[in-house]
Design goal:
The protein contains one helix and no strands. With 31 residues, it is mainly α.
Length: 31
């Protein structure tokens, strides 16, 4: 159960990292 939770957490952090980089690239594109 704890392992599953940790895995989910990892996936979420990876997703947020992707979103952050996309937002960053989008900001550059807007500029």
């Amino acid at each position: 159960m704890l392992l599953n939770f940790r895995d989910k957490n990892k996936r979420t952090s990876i997703k947020s990292e992707k979103n952050r980089s996309i937002k960053f690239l989008h900001g550059i594109a807007v500029l």
